[in-house]
Specification:
The chain has 357 residues and is α+β, with helices and mostly antiparallel strands. The protein is built from twelve helices and ten strands. The protein folds into two domains: 2-86; 102-344, 2-Layer Sandwich (BirA Bifunctional Protein, domain 2). Helix 1 packs parallel to helix 4 and helix 2 (18-29) packs antiparallel against helix 4 (47-86). It binds phenylalanine. Phenylalanine is lined by residues 173, 175, 253, 256, 286-288, 309-311. Phenylalanine (PHE) is lined by residues 173, 175, 253, 256, 286-288, 309-311.
Length: 357
């Protein structure tokens, strides 16, 4: 009995994992285990022998069973300890620094403009940057022979050889969104449409890709006075001042009648651009009353509806507000410039929270 006991307790002590423990259990207490076989021998013993051997074997069986269970628990604890030692994590370490990105001034200004016009009840509309000549020109009362097509320095897309349809264009302004929006929701409406536009032009205040916000308000009794009020309110809110000198200049666009261009007073002294002072004027937008032919082209009845439209240069007003003298720098992707002029991503411009802080 003692030999059996020493043998199995020794094997249990040496077992290195759960599989080894199971092997020991089967060898001792399995159907054909050594101790099980011994218990079967009890039947052939005399009653006196059985009275001694029976309880002793039962006690041995219990002892081995609890040694097996204890070893199993010890192994599980050891495994957990090892894993905890392996997978430690120092939660007091500082986070890894990430490259700090900033919002481009164009994105910031687009958000600011959107917040101001949203407050005046304008929804935001969109259109494609590659558009047909119908939306970019014809529907806006710029027929094929019109000099405005040449003046716009249009980028034309290629057509496959033999395809004689008029080529698509990179939109030269956001005005095609006027047509698309009227087609989509009809009248009345009040929308702005910010986005990229393209013209072959390059100097300190022109880049081949730039940004505009189109404005369009259609209703039964809209006048030039409403246009002027909206633009003045916009400019004051945008520049965060009580007064800005604006100049409305009579102008001409095929898609508005009458038309006006709007300039803002500024100075360029010492290479810095300042708004609201000086003797210079910077043109920031074109505007006017929507031409009846434009309404007609978009299936809006000009006998019933009228409205104003404007196209505002986002890049220009960004330069003015944030004192950025050269437009070309906007698109150079110079990290130092972006860090200097960029905005924190979480400072969402709102009228109540402050536009630019
Ligand atoms: N689309 C004109 C431009 O790009 C601006 C404009 C828009 C003028 C709407 C009048 C009305 O120059």
């Amino acid at each position: 009995m003692d030999a059996l006991r020493n043998k199995y307790l020794g094997l249990i002590a040496d077992a290195a994992d759960e599989a080894a423990i199971e092997d020991v259990r089967i060898a001792a207490l399995g159907k054909k285990g050594e101790i099980s076989l011994k218990m079967r021998e009890l039947g052939g013993m005399s009653p006196e022998e059985r009275q001694v051997a029976g309880p002793a074997l039962n006690a041995l069986k219990d002892e081995i069973n609890s040694a097996l269970a204890a070893k199993k628990a010890a192994l599980a604890d050891a495994a957990l300890d090892a894993r905890l030692r392996e997978e430690w994590l120092d939660v007091t370490l500082p986070g890894r620094p990430r490259p700090a990105g900033t919002l481009h001034p164009i994105s910031q200004v687009t958000e600011e403009v959107t917040a101001i016009f949203a407050d005046m009840g304008f929804a935001v509309a969109e259109g494609p940057q590659i558009d047909s000549d119908w939306y970019n020109f014809d529907a806006l009362n710029i027929p094929g022979h019109h000099p405005a097509r040449a003046e716009m320095d249009t980028f034309y897309m290629h057509r496959a050889p033999g395809d004689n349809r008029p080529p698509h264009v990179l939109r030269t302004h956001t005005s095609p969104v006027q047509i698309r929006t009227m087609e989509r929701i009809g009248a009345p409406l009040r929308v702005i449409a910010p986005g990229r536009v393209y013209r072959a032009d390059y100097d300190q205040t022109h880049t081949p890709m730039f940004h505009q916000v189109e404005g369009l308000a259609i209703d039964t009794d809209i006048s030039m006075a409403n246009l002027k009020w909206c633009l003045e309110e916009f400019v004051k809110a945008y520049f965060e001042v009580d007064h800005v000198d604006l100049r409305f200049r009579a102008s001409h666009f095929p898609f508005t009648e009458p038309s006006a261009e709007v300039d803002i007073r500024c100075s360029w002294e010492g290479g810095t651009l300042k708004v609201g002072q000086g003797d210079d004027w910077l043109e920031i937008l074109g505007s006017g009353m929507v031409h009846p032919k434009v309404l007609q082209a978009a299936n809006v009845d000009p006998a019933k509806w009228q409205g104003f439209a404007f196209g505002l240069g986002i890049d220009r007003i960004a330069m003015l507000k944030y004192g950025i003298p050269d437009l070309r720098a906007f698109f150079d992707s110079d990290l130092r410039w972006l860090r200097h002029y960029g905005f924190a991503a979480l400072d969402v411009p709102t009228l109540h929270g402050g536009l630019s802080r």
